[in-house]
């Protein structure tokens, strides 16, 4: 339609648009004022947070022997009903990466909400905006260990150790805690947590080049000195915002302005968390920058605590769930999973080390969406929570979590066999090898050498700064100057400028109230509104082009400067083509692992019928057709309520112990382990038939067996005795497992 053919209509459209735009501008200014006032109010609070759940304080980290600004909270059920005492407790750890606490429970559909809905006791570890003077990262790890021990002590009847959920920075924090206290923790869920800081692919992930562009971590030391021993978390937030300038400088605000009638509340809720940066001790941030961001020493097993204990992630005994996303530009999948390739040379080393690693990669969700998206909470987090007991007993190895929508065939199977998989999805853990992680892309030897050069140069520059410049800077800094510097940070200034502290905004609340009473929004067919949208898209495209050019230039400079053989030689790196770093070996751990495997190889004739059933099932599931563990098979086992030969309840802890032992026996010598099965079976034909019935029932929980899996089942049937019915009525008989 040619709008200029009807000038009166065009004039009317212009008038309507002008009124709408003016009203939106006033309402948007009022939203910014509300945001600023909220930020100023929260800055005056002792413990600001964005949790939407009620809680009780269980432990205050400030009262520990080595005090920290962390605390342990017990989340209260919204309906007042006490959680199931037999279910394992969950602890959600929030990230202290610039922002305040509470993102894991910011909405009802959240990590905390999912745990509560499943009936588990739920705890939360948060922090205060100001650190305790002198606290260190090691102090925080020590405090977290005490929090976990306290939760375990509060739930002695729980079937399993506490499950830990670590978001972003909290992910690597709980990994360090778990590596130092492997017998204390249950399964770990790492959501968007970086662990391999050099990892990534060219053309993407520019944040990993930042340390090299800045010449190392000397500027972190400078920031700590200017802050009078305090590092301002606003600087971390600013780094995140710089990654996506179109969103920071335009899209986020424009989205609210253009949809002011519907998006204001959502914007204010998010800004309540985003706009309140916390503080860290300068020593804490220096440790993070030196040891992790630039040094990348966590995935090298090169960190030691103050007592000389190696922080080796291979010491963790509990399953580790890594949840990452291709849409996450802060923690890409390579950084979330690259540590596995750093620590293990091959799949055999991973299995023999007894470590279970499960990963899931979302296709599009962004970094923050991993923690706050309702769709993610109601799918991935809900499924992980429901399957946590199964995850805890998974045999060692690498798996990918796959979520299958229930089709008609699955629904019909559930009707026949009972509800073996609650919810809308069936979770499967499909066996993967390390080549699947290598296929994600990563650094070659030359790129590794470049990052190693940055780490060496960083130490040199930091040493020069601390020797010659730091004393001068410290002599000129006072607490008052440090506070003024923090308040003048652009992140804080934009909140203060658009708040009631600005007298120029005094008339905005009254104007906004009048506008709401006389609101006249225009329709989407307004030509001037369409022009507004077109201009907005052009602004976004221009800022995105600037970002792409900037990131490409950053990468080119990094590759050129730190790829120089002269610079590499000057910082002491060999240029013989070998790997620039080598993972340290833990001889004691390797010896203990070898001794355990050797001992298990001699115990294949020990045990009873329960061990025989589990070994037989594992033998079947080791076939190529059964390379995935399905939650329906685990549910079938749980529904049987197996008991040991001495009539003890087969809880998750005991089942995990037996399953891992039997799996390693098969892994060491499969033929010997299978051939020795008759020694575990009772003499009574009925008992053997009942045991075989259980094997058939569990093995067939996911469908009819074919190929080698069917062949293996027939071999087990021959070993166990006569053909058993699909569902055996188990009678109480000595030596036979009892089942409901």
UniProtKB/TrEMBL annotation:
This is DUF3141 domain-containing protein. InterPro entries: AB_hydrolase_fold, DUF3141, PHA/PHB_synthase. It holds the Pfam family DUF3141. Coiled coil: none annotated.
């Amino acid at each position: 339609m040619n709008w200029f053919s009807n000038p009166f209509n065009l004039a009317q459209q212009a008038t309507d648009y002008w009124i709408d735009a003016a009203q939106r501008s006033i309402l948007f200014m009022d939203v910014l004022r509300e945001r600023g006032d909220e930020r100023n109010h929260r800055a005056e609070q002792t413990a600001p947070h964005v949790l939407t759940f009620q809680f009780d304080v269980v432990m205050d980290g400030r009262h520990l022997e080595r005090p920290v600004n962390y605390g342990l909270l017990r989340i209260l059920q919204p309906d007042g009903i006490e959680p199931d005492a037999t279910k394992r407790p969950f602890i959600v750890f929030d990230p202290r990466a610039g922002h305040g606490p509470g993102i894991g429970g910011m909405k009802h559909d959240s990590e905390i909400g999912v745990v509560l809905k499943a009936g588990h006791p739920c705890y939360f570890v948060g922090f205060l905006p100001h650190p305790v003077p002198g606290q260190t990262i090691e102090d925080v790890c020590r405090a977290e260990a005490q929090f976990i021990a306290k939760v375990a002590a509060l739930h002695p009847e729980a079937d399993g150790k506490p499950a830990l959920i670590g978001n972003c920075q909290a992910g690597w924090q709980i990994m360090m805690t778990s590596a130092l206290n492997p017998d204390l923790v249950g399964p770990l869920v790492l959501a968007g947590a970086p662990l391999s800081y050099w990892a990534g692919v060219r053309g993407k992930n520019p944040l990993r080049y930042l340390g090299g562009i800045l010449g190392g971590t000397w500027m972190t030391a400078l920031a700590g000195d200017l802050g009078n021993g305090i590092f301002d978390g606003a600087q971390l937030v600013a780094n995140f915002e710089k990654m996506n300038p179109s969103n920071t400088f335009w899209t986020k605000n424009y989205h609210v302005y253009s949809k002011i009638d519907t998006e204001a509340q959502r914007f204010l809720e998010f800004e309540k968390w985003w706009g309140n940066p916390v503080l860290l001790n300068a020593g804490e941030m220096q440790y993070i920058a030196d040891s992790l961001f630039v040094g990348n020493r966590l995935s090298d097993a090169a960190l030691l605590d103050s007592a000389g204990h190696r922080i080796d992630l291979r010491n963790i005994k509990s399953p580790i769930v890594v949840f990452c996303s291709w849409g996450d530009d802060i923690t890409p999948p390579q950084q979330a999973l690259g540590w596995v390739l750093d620590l293990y040379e091959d799949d055999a080393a991973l299995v023999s080390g007894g470590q279970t690693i499960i990963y899931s990669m979302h296709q599009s969700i962004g970094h923050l969406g991993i923690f706050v998206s309702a769709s993610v909470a109601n799918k991935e987090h809900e499924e992980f929570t429901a399957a946590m007991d199964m995850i805890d007993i998974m045999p060692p190895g690498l798996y990918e979590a796959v979520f299958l929508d229930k089709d008609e065939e699955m629904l019909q199977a559930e009707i026949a066999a009972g509800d073996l998989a609650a919810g809308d999805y069936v979770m499967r853990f499909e066996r993967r090898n390390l080549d699947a992680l290598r296929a994600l892309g990563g650094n070659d030897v030359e790129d590794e050498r470049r990052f190693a050069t940055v780490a060496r140069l960083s130490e040199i520059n930091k040493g020069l700064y601390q020797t010659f410049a730091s004393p001068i800077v410290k002599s000129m800094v006072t607490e008052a100057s440090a506070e003024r510097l923090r308040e003048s940070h652009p992140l804080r200034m934009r909140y203060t400028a658009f708040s009631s502290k600005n007298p120029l905004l005094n008339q905005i609340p009254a104007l906004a109230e009048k506008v709401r009473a006389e609101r006249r929004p225009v329709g989407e067919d307004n030509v001037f509104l369409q022009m507004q949208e077109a201009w907005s898209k052009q602004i976004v495209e221009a800022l995105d082009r600037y970002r792409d050019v900037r990131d490409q230039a950053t990468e080119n400079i990094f590759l050129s400067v730190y790829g120089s053989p002269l610079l590499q030689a000057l910082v002491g790196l060999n240029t013989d083509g070998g790997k620039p770093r080598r993972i340290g070996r833990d001889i004691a751990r390797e010896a203990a692992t070898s001794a355990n495997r050797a001992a298990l190889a001699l115990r294949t004739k020990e045990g009873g019928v329960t061990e025989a059933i589990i070994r037989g099932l594992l033998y079947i599931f080791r076939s190529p057709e059964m390379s995935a563990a399905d939650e329906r098979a685990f549910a079938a086992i749980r529904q049987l309520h197996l008991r040991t030969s001495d009539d003890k309840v087969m809880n998750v802890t005991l089942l995990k112990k037996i399953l891992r032992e039997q799996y390693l026996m098969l892994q060491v010598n499969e033929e010997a382990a299978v051939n020795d099965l008759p020694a575990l079976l009772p003499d009574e034909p009925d008992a053997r038939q009942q045991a075989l019935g259980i094997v058939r029932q569990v093995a067939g929980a996911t469908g009819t067996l074919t190929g080698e899996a069917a062949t293996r089942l027939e071999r087990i049937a021959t070993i166990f005795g006569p053909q058993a019915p699909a569902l055996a009525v188990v009678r109480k008989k000595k030596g036979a497992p009892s089942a409901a």
